[in-house]
# Entry
Amino acid sequence: MSSKLALSDDILMKIEKPARYIGNEVNAVVKDKTKVEVRFAMCFPDVYEIGMSHLGIQILYGMLNDMEDVWCERVYSPWLDLDAIMREEKIPLFALESQDPVKDFDFLGITIQYEMCYTNILQVLDLAQIPLLASERGEDCPIVIGGGPCTYNPEPIADFFDLFYIGEGETQYRNLITLYEECRAAKVGREEFLRRAAKIPGMYVPRFYEVTYREDGTIAAFTPTEEGIPATVLKEIEMDMTNTYYPTKPVVPYIKVTQDRVVLEIQRGCIRGCRFCQAGQLYRPVRERDVEKLKQYAIEMLKHTGQEEISLSSLSSSDYSKLPELIDFLIEECNKKHINISLPSLRIDAFSLDVMSKVQDVKKSSLTFAPEAGSQRLRNVINKGLTEEVILHGSALAFEGGWTRVKLYFMLGLPTETEEDIRGIAELSNKIAATFFEVVPKEKRTNGKVQIVTSTSFFVPKPFTPFQWAAQCTREEFLDKAYQTKKAITGQLNQKSIKYNWHEADASVLEGVLARGDRRLSEVLLKVYKKGCFYEAWSEYFHNDIWMETIEECGLSVDFYSHRQRDLDEIFPWDFIDCGVTKEFLKREWLKAQKEQISENCKLKCQGCGANRFGGGICFEKK
Amino acid sequence: MKLRVKFRKYGPIRFIGHLDVMRFFQKAIRRAQIDIAYSGGFSPHQIMSFAAPLGVGLESNGEYMDIEVNSIRSCEDVKNRLNGASVPGIEVTSVKILPQKAGNAMASVAAASYTVRFREGRGPVCRISEALPVFLAKEQILITKETKKGSREVDLKPGIYELTWQDNAFFMLVDASSSGNIKPSQIIEALLSDNGEALQENALLITREDTFTDIGTEGCRKLVPLDDIGMDDTAKI
# Structure
């Protein structure tokens, strides 16, 4: 154990939850720093409880620490109370395990999971006393690497990173670190290391690319500035899910974190192809993990952590081919050890209801449906293959089984949406409530009545989706749609059984700007941060007015990034990245959406998205 | 079978709060594969009870928890398994079997002993060796206690069973029962205030040395460490 702490007792006694900053958790890896070659700080730029809940970091942390020459440690955003003290007392940001300053590390890896954390990246760099701009970093600064879903459009944050690792982390870290060790031994310098790194598959080094713009603000060209730097970067992907690394000794936090359980990733990717969903495109093709391996991981993880809950993770668990076998195994194992099973992202049908009734208290739990759109027409547009019939049938089964609470998730502002589609949200909610009164006779209504919670979020178009060309609604349009939804729900017969929630509109618009933004937004981010904004994924710390004012100051406009429908032949800031799915396929899907035509899922019929080039997964399984 | 587990808490782990220490042990017990008993119902939980909560920042050589187990190999085995599943900073020092009718850890707590030092540069100006006898000779030691409903006067005197100053450290044995719990800082604060001084912020380094129960009969106090109630398993298993 390191009994050394970076923070004094005085500070630790003054701040909220000091346990966020002291490390020493069960399964935290401590190495002798004199016996490793490379020090790697892995950061999730949000508070400890959020960052510790992320599976991706657990995978990379374990995998890097399995390398004898590397010591990987964790870093999270200090909460606001400690942030103020660290600035005041000029305490450099430190890694949890060694409590050593991050600025002395070889690498600082930052996982970027949502756009609204961009200002927290700057907070982390700033507290670490690393220059915010990559161009201002000297030889003694860590190499700052970005990874995660947001790096599929890294341009708005390009100025702050030395390197982006595009795609899945399992494949190239060994090569990257070996190259670093060689470059250090040969004393070639930072710039030359980055130049060589840019030639490793999946690596994007922004400083070796140049962007020119047309008069209308769109991109004219995006080109490498040097010979030998690749013009496109193909995402990295792990095709051998059976033999790849899996973290069976995840770190066990002392304090309660958001995902306070062990997580079993059963597959990567999704066969469904919903047209708004970025993850559904980025992680193609679907690759399942071997069920026998999963059983073994589950047992080992529970043994090594002592956690009392295990959760399955995937974009659509019901599509995992060995799900019944895996669940039967888990139920048997977990029942005897008093361990809870959590099964998110299950489609509601007879099988899942049976399973759920075995693993949870029916009276206390609720069912979740995500129809996403209120009418069949709009569900066809977004290619969400969930029909009203399926939802009502599933609800009826569930009500018969004793459930009385239903959660419904919809999006407002989807392309082609009409007032009728919005009314459909209210009508569907009402029909579900009516189903309850139909199938459950009065004397059996133990909880009295049914509770429907209908939530809407605002649609944000994302890169590498068929809707990347779509215009996003304005704040006013969004709020009007939420008002229409509310009014329509109030007009329903069973309105007393329906509760309606909607999200903030401002943050959704800004998320849209950042998601499809270009390099010019780096300046906005820098200015917004310098005006004191961070932790903006937390609605109480989100300052929309400062963003709007700064975007204008920089001569940019929200209209340009968010509310404009893009031309089919426009060059996007992220076009130089190849995520496996072709732009042609996305274009086809965008046109089919406008014609309200659906596309079958990968299991039923190949749509020729391009992901079969990786030579495995669902693309090569028998249909 | 009920076990009483005594443990130390020290180093960086002193910043882990009481509820998180409970959560730590729930997981450690599973890692150690102790055959602990679970409550009934839809969400069964481990049957365990902790003695006196320890404030964040304090170290301790005498923390206790009781756990209900279905079976054990030996007390020594439970101790070794728990330590094998623990972290540096939480160390189990004894495991004993409780008699059937022993009260649970929390209800049994009557007193606690502490060693208290001043942090470097945060001690008082007055000489404690001179101030302490005067302080202890007082008939009442009144302090104002802030509660949710306002403030009220409390007399610390009856709850101070021992208070000495030696080698720049206080040793104190004080009431730790739920009705009359005294915090070490309350005593030092009162002592300093009698001498016209205030306790500086975060001035004290406090170690709980042990936690006691009262086995005396009516009116006659007899304090023994909580694990004196338990037995070794040598005779039993």
Remarks:
- The helical segments of chain B are 18-31, 75-84, 105-108, 128-137, 184-194.
